[in-house]
Amino acid sequence: xxxxxxxxxxxxxAFQTCKSPDARERVQFYDSWAENYEKxxxxxxxxxxxxxxxxxxxxxxxxxxxxxxxxxxxxSGWIAKLMxxxxxxxxxxxxxxxxxxxxxxxxxLYEELKLALxxxxxxxxxxxxxxxxxxxxxxDPGFAPVSVVRELCHAAKPGGLVCMSRxxxxxxxxxxxxxxLERELQQMQEEGLWSQVGLKHTDRYMEDPHLDPERVQxxxxxxxxxxxxxxxxxxxxx
Length: 238
Ligand SMILES: C[S@@+](CC[C@H](N)C(=O)[O-])C[C@H]1O[C@@H](n2cnc3c(N)ncnc32)[C@H](O)[C@@H]1O
Description:
- The chain is built from eight helices and seven strands; from the N terminus they run αααβαβαββαβαβαβ.
- The chain is α/β, with parallel strands linked by helices.
- The protein has a single domain, classed as Vaccinia Virus protein VP39 (Rossmann fold), CATH 3.40.50.150.
């Protein structure tokens, strides 16, 4: 059961425990965090699902009701809970954490939920089957490796949209990851696999969960946030 007395300090402590560079250990941590996941992310003003969905909606002209949506690293099902309010009905979810998938299952919104450790196991999704492929908050070092973006593109239908939202977490590994990600996105465009629809930047992706708790109180509200970006690509038709 979610602990309703969770505080920002509890949330920060949980984020700071979840530091392993090993994806398998990370997803195991999510198993134990699942029940407090949404509460802790709300306490840190996490905006990856909203950032991605808002940008996607500005650019999606198909039928919401008919669209097939692949939610990669679906976690607790936050994306489907928001998108169902907008008329979307067909969701398939993938995640590496059993605990998170159990929460996603409880929403009753997913037609299928699949367990897979991305980067180690292939993305369990049919090629060319989804109108929308979305990944929020999981393109980071120790999470889904950069190579996964090719698999996201494979899963999209020709002309389908791939939406990726992520935060600029501090540290050299985060900066290196972002550089490699943007290089791969560009490389795929040069290969004719997709074209960029646009980028949407936010200065307030979430509160920096890795700040020293002693320092947080000294900072102005806006200094506590990390920035983030939603990347939107359209798969080539041919
Ligand atoms: C920050 S949560 C984001 C969840 C959801 N997309 C959201 O925005 O609420 C990251 C999710 O990615 C999953 N994850 C991290 N690395 C993964 C990997 N290599 N393979 C599969 N899932 C992974 C975790 O289990 C967790 O559910």
